[in-house]
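Regression test attached.
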Amino acid sequence: MLGNFSFRVILESLPAFGSGLATTLWLSLIAFAGALAVGIIACALKLQPAKLLRAPAVVFIDAIRATPLLAQLYFLYFGLPRLGIVLPELFVGILALSLNSGAYVAEIIRAGILSIPRGQVEAGISSGMTFAQRMRLVILPQAFKVTIPPLLGQAIVLVKDSALLSLIAVAELTRAGQSLASDRFMPAEAFITTAACYLILYYGLKALAALSARWVGLRPARQDMPA
Amino acid sequence: MMIWQQLQSIVGSYPLALRGLGTTVAVSLIGLLAGSLAGFALGMLRAGGNRLVRLVIGAWVDLIRGTPFLVQIFLIFFILPEFGIELEAFTAGVIALSNLAACFICEIVAGGIGAVPKGQVEAALASGLSRWQRMRHVVLPQAMRIILPPLVGQYVLLIKDSSVVSAIGLTDLTRVGWLVVQRVPNGLLVFGLVGLGYFIVCYPLLAIARRIERRMSAAHAEVQL
């Protein structure tokens, strides 16, 4: 039973969990920025009419979406040294997270752009706008708003996924739990505290997502004009 | 030359690979089946049921959705024994995956049911259908249209999540890759093949999800004419 559940041990190891939480937070932030960059590039390529440009993006996105993050992580972790690229575990982890989430971000942005009613594009064309002007002034401002809530959803997924980096010995939150569990044989204390730390991040991001959804809903992008 | 030797060495470990594939398929299949059953039941309760039941289910779903699957597996594998429940890695993995599946599917099902217009339920009530009849003959068939595309997408995510059970020593496809790469130091090749194994299972499902979505939205557009 958990009769000997020790809050004292949790209190003693709070500094370790604090630094683990901080690491998880900032590495997730960097990885999310990377995912945005990867996603924007992949999405831009996928929307090109030229097949030669579109194909690599399609292959990349499908390959990422149809394989587990853990396999991708090991692919880079064990594979990069093979190419003569030796990086610290932390970098490999952030790279894997960025590429993985990037594929999902690309799909989110694409869905946002495609959700803009065709009439908007036609109105842009008939106003004599160039393609670049239509994108910049008509489509992207509306698409941007629509994508914020699902992007925050992806950020939540990314934070949780970052737990896998503990398996390549990155000293983040889950690793802090693993250390406590193995050093002092207290898995209950260790992993319940770990879970609680993730829940703090989860509820924070979830509140942000709800706020942004309301913001989007309060000032909705104009839907189809009445005829 | 070296790659040729490595390939031979990898081909030589095909019994291990088959075992890994079998474990991945078994864990995923049991997890998805149990998770779907529990998920649909919970989803219906969450959409209808009394307030307390809804609250409890909602809180549990939030706990599971808010924590990494890896941490959930550790919790189940290391803490249940403290309650006198000794678990094998396989059982722990299956329980963890079923629970995860149930929670995500619960949300999808509840969302689908919530999207069915209220008038439909009122019409069924007026026709004197019982609660179960309303659910079975009126609400669920219409909700399925909304549930199906995200459900298939969720299946893909869950099959991929099953790779995390390798962390407690279960010899699934990912673990096999990890074991082989210790002997054949070519991560690109080994995990390229592991990825291919998952791709063969997941890609068709992704394609199906895409097709269902297109067909459903086309059918919907027809109705709305």
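Expected vs. actual: identical. Residues 102 and 162 of chain B are 14 Å apart (CA to CA).
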